[in-house]
Every structure is written in C-alpha cells, then in structure tokens.
Amino acid sequence: MSNPAGLVSAVTYRDPKAALAWLEAAFGFELTFLIEGEDASVAHAEMSHGASRLMVGGEWSPAHASPASMGGKVTQTVHIYIDSDVDAHCRRAAEAGAEILQAPETQFYGARTYRCRDLEGHLWTVSADVEVVSMDEMEARSGLKITVGKP
Questions:
Q1: Which residues does 104 contact at the CB level (< 8 Å), separation at least 6?
Q2: What pLDDT shows up at residue 127?
Q3: Which residues contact 146 (CB under 8 A, 6 or more apart)?
Q4: How many domains does the chain have?
Q5: Would you give the DSSP letter of residue 41?
Q6: What is the pLDDT of residue 73?
Q7: Residues 48 and 79 in one domain
Q8: What DSSP character marks residue 64?
Q9: Is residue 119 assigned to a domain?
C-alpha cells in the first residue's frame, strides 16, 4: 500500500465497525482499507472522501479515546470540503443520526457550512464554496483584519 504525502486525520471510536458504516451513510466516505483482529474487531481502517483520507480505529490505548468515553470532550474537529449541495449533505447526515449543531449557512468568506456531532460525539464541519470573495470583501463582511502569510 502506497500513501501520498499529506495530512491524514485519525478518529477514535468505541465501536469503530459501527462508525465505518455510519461515516459512509452520513457523509459518503468509502472504506478503502481494513485490518481486522481474530474476533472481527477493527484493528485499523481507512476511508476516503474525494482526494482525502481518514483513519478510523478503536480505543487501543489510554491516550486514544472516543468523545463518548470522555464525557463528550473533543480535542479536534474534522472539516470536510465537498463539491456538492451542503444543504442536501446536511439532510443526509441528519437522516443518518447526526446531531446538527449549526444548520447550513453561507459564511463571510464564501463557503456554505454546517456543523454536526456524530454517533460518538466527534464534531464535524462540512463546507462547499458557493462564491468567490476577495480579502477586502471578507474584511468588510466580517469586521475582522485578514492577513495572509504574516503573523
């Protein structure tokens, strides 16, 4: 198996097998790699979404826990960019059981975005670009100072 250079997020679940099915149903991820233990448990899995990958695994050490095992606390969110209708994607996720935390809304920077919580508490943001917005227009819409490439 050859992996291209880049960033790949890894998400931990109490029940990674259920998570694999849910991520496919809710977000359209595709299972691309699966290693199972003798008891058919998920030792490691990878899913793809467009050109991106996601690793999915179980709680294999004290440092790797699902938000469901941590009182709902998370240390990261996962952001998915799509090239299709965000509102339809949101409906699909809700029908699969996602808790919609923020309904689809067009942001000042030109992306339409929604936020949700998955079956074990991971936070997800889904966006699609719906308009091209200049830096000057982003500043005007948001009231924020936007800098590119400098602290």
A1: 86, 87, 90, 112, 113, 114
A2: 97
A3: 135, 138, 139
A4: 2
A5: -
A6: 86
A7: no
A8: B
A9: yes
Is the per-residue pLDDT at 149 higher than 80?
no
149 is in which domain, residue-wise?
72-151
Q: Would you mind telling me the total number of residues written for the chain in this entry?
A: 151
Q: How many CB atoms lie within 10 A of CB 118?
A: 24
62 pLDDT tier (thresholds 50, 70, 90) = confident
Mean pLDDT in residue range 59-88: 90
**Token pair recorded at residue 146:** 């936007």
Longest dimension (CA), the chain: 58
Please count the CA atoms within 13 angstroms of the CA of 64 that sit on its side-chain side: 15
Residue 89's pLDDT band (cuts 50, 70, 90): very high
58 in Cβ contact with 14 (< 8 Å): yes
